């Protein structure tokens, strides 16, 4: 019996990343065209057979978020109707992950709604990276592989050869991620205590840990408007830090983010390419997640352990 075939397709959200993945794996990118009707509706044409194949749809749901979500759902639905054997949604960035609980009366839980939509469209499995809230994995009734970005970031900082390092979490919720990075590069740990009176607004209350004379690396999963990270970096310098680096997996970088970074004390911002960056500046260093996603796809296709990638 012939080995089952796998094919990789992508939407318009991050075509360069999808191309990197197929180049790494040595396979062609699936032939599909996504266009728009005059009223903005999505028109999809899959130009090759997918019958009996394992299909991987690479589509982070980043800006424009709602368009990219619909592209993903329509592609999954089309693959299902075309008799694909198994469909995996490869979502390096999972949009709406910050709406994962009710913090006030009558709030939606949009991260759960996303999970319902993806499952109903016909996905058999999901691959994603650094969910803002790891509990989102429980929103799915299908398998979900959650890949961490810390190993990629830690390898970069190890190669830089920095000394006397302190890893700083910009909030209490990111302590586990910061501790993971600190352990990998042999650094100490500090925490910024802040409160967020409204979305995209933060106020720093205190810094827990010793910073004087240290090279600081701030780590977060997402940097959106860059208010928290730039404000935090300034406070760390005022508290005696020698220099400040910052890193994250998902560079959303919306609104005033680029201008804030340019005017900040941050020496370098290290990010991955889960999301395409519209405007590059010299401060930003981009690391590729294509090899990681490529290896995950191979392991899923061959029914091997994905967690072994990090052990």
Can you tell me about this structure?
The chain is of the alpha/beta class and 311 residues long. Helix content is 30%, strand content 28%. The longest helix has 17 residues, at 65-81.
Lay out the secondary structure.
Blueprint (H helix, E strand, L loop, with lengths): L5 E5 L4 H11 L6 E5 L5 E5 L7 E5 L6 H17 L4 E6 L18 H12 L3 E5 L14 E4 L2 H11 L4 E5 L5 H11 L2 E11 L2 E8 L6 E9 L3 H12 L4 E9 L5 H6 L3 E7 L11 E4 L2 H12 L10
Helix pairs in contact: 1-8, 4-5
In short:
The chain is built from eight helices and 14 strands. The chain has a seven-stranded mixed beta sheet. A five-stranded parallel beta sheet has the order 1-4-5-6-7, with helices on both faces. A two-stranded antiparallel sheet has the order 2-3.
List keywords for this structure.
311 residues; alpha/beta; 7-stranded mixed sheet; 5-stranded parallel sheet; 8 helices; 28% strand
Q: What percentage of the residues does DSSP assign to strands (E)?
A: 25-35%
Question: What's the order of the H and E elements?
Answer: EHEEEHEHEEHEHEEEHEHEEH
Distance between the termini: 33 Å
Q: What's the number of helices?
A: 8
Largest sheet: 7 strands, mixed
Overall pLDDT: 94
Radius of gyration: 20 Å
Q: How many extended strands?
A: 14
What is the oligomer described by this structure? Answer: single chain
């Amino acid at each position: 019996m012939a080995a089952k075939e796998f094919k990789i397709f992508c939407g318009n959200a991050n075509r360069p990343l999808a191309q990197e993945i197929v180049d790494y794996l040595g396979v062609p990118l699936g032939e599909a065209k996504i266009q728009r009707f005059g009223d903005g509706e999505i028109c999809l044409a899959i130009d090759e057979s997918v019958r009996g194949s394992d299909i991987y749809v690479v589509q982070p749901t980043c800006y424009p978020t709602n368009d990219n979500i619909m592209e993903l759902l329509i592609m999954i639905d089309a693959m299902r109707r075309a008799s694909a054997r198994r469909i995996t949604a490869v979502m390096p960035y999972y949009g709406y992950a910050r709406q994962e609980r009710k913090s006030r009366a009558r709030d939606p839980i949009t991260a759960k709604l996303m999970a319902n939509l993806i499952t109903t469209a016909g996905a058999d499995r999901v691959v994603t990276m650094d969910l803002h809230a790891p509990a989102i994995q429980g929103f799915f009734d299908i398998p979900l592989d959650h890949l961490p970005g810390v190993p990629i970031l830690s390898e970069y900082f190890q190669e830089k050869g920095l000394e006397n390092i302190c890893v700083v979490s910009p909030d209490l919720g990111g302590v586990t991620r910061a501790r993971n990075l600190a352990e990998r590069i042999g650094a100490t740990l500090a925490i910024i205590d802040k409160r967020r009176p409204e979305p995209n607004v933060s106020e720093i209350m205190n810094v827990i840990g010793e910073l004087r004379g240290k090279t600081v690396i701030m780590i977060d999963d997402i940097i959106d408007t860059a208010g928290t990270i730039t404000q935090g970096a300034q406070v760390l310098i005022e508290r005696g830090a020698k220099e400040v680096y910052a890193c994250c997996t998902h560079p959303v970088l919306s609104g005033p983010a680029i201008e804030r970074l340019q005017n900040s004390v941050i020496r370098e911002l290290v990010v991955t390419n889960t999301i395409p960056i519209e405007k590059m500046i010299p401060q930003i260093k981009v690391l590729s997640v294509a090899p990681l996603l490529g290896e995950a796809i191979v392991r899923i296709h061959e029914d091997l352990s994905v967690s072994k990638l990090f052990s």
